[in-house]
Amino acid sequence: MKLLNADTSPKVRCTGGAKPELFEFTVRDRRFVYDCNSMVLAQLEPGENPKNHPPDLVLGVEYRPVFPCYRLSSCRYLVIEACHACNLRCDYCLVRAYYPGVDMMSFDTARSAIDYLFPNVEAAKGGSIGFFGGEPLLNWRTIVDVVRYFEGRTFPAQPHFHITTNGTLFSKDKLAFLRGRRFSFIVSLDGPEHVHDRHRKDANGRGSFKDVLEGLRLLRQEQFTGSITLRATYTKDTAGEMLDVAKFLNQLVWDGFGNHVSIEPSFLTESLCVDPNASKVTITQEDLLMLEDQYLKVADWFVEQIQLGRKPVFHNITKTLERLLYCIHSGTECGAGVGYVSVNSKGDTFACHREQSSLIGNVFRGGLDEELRAKWLDNRIYLRKGCMQCPVRFSCGGGCREESLGVHGDISAPVATQCALRFIWLKAAAWIMSNLPPTDLTRIVPKPRALTPQGRKPMGEQK
Length: 463
Fold this sequence. Notes:
Elements (H helix, E strand, L loop, with lengths): L1 E2 L18 E6 L2 E6 L5 E4 L10 H5 L17 E5 L12 H5 L8 H11 L3 H5 L2 E5 L7 H15 L5 E6 L6 H7 L3 E7 L4 H7 L9 H13 L6 E7 L7 H13 L5 E6 L22 H20 L7 H11 L14 E4 L4 E3 L8 E4 L4 E2 L1 H8 L15 H4 L4 H8 L7 H20 L2 H7 L19
Helix pairs in contact: 3-5, 10-15, 11-15
């Protein structure tokens, strides 16, 4: 038996001790055993039975993580739905299915949301604002006014801002305004031109790849210093090209066009009643065998690149590697509805930037409706149906609750396809860990500050 994270995992004993709960799984020709509580991972020799080993040899420590109830109820991250309009016509767009109109956010509405959710200077200093759409850069005037107003609320502290964009509307004037401010971007780019242009076309049916690349070149030319995530969406018909997408986006990062790569599945189940065409692109259970093969091909490529001295990035794999490598337990998927709130042009407030199933009030009609918000306030894994019996629960965090509402109408019911994907990510990470020494892995995935002596938190507080 070869322990894969014994040298890197923090030896932190949590309250609520638990006996080993071993889960055995296979990746290709290799067998692994994983303790569901401690997250310690080991590779088995052919024919080896992990039950023949004393638990101490498998675990090193025995514990079950504890996640205290997160009591913070004030907003820390406000998403302003700047508009539901867009200059593109991407056929997997969830916003277009919900809001076919233009629907621009006024500054007065945005200011009312800021005043309500950040009621004083101290609240504002601890907050961040993101702009979402549609394509938020179509409402540039409101973005400028919001940035200046929020800066005034936090002065002399400099707040953080974020924009999720299709990358086609950057200009020197816009970047001149953003430069020097704490802005980060997610830029949607689905991969090489033949992949990207399959689903991301403009109103005239023309592919948008060249426009996005021009936008990224402008960001690099203007020496924009904020974090840039290149975000691809794969669909039923492009998932088989995941490795090519990962290679392409990583090369852009290595060439200075971005910092991070995220490649995410298209899940439009909650849109099907609005847009029947969503069934042509959304990922379903029948795609899982193909997806496991694709993620493992990316894992092979990861190993090759790391051995060459490069640093590949791919959020879902890299994040799972981090959690396994350092035994970081996740007790929730996100802070939707707690520290995270979004607002649209009508002043409606939502627990998530995905508005379909997450309404929790209106800033002009009483603010947050605590009855609607109540089901979002405790987002711990304990309340997710079946999660505490799942072997990969602590590397997952319980899945997306907005999708649970969209698919099942039940915030506590996980979505099976999402659950299966998280197990695939764990398999891919385990494969990478079994092929590389810890010294290589820790170079690629450094220890999070929360686990360093200066930044250590109790296990239940790690995110």
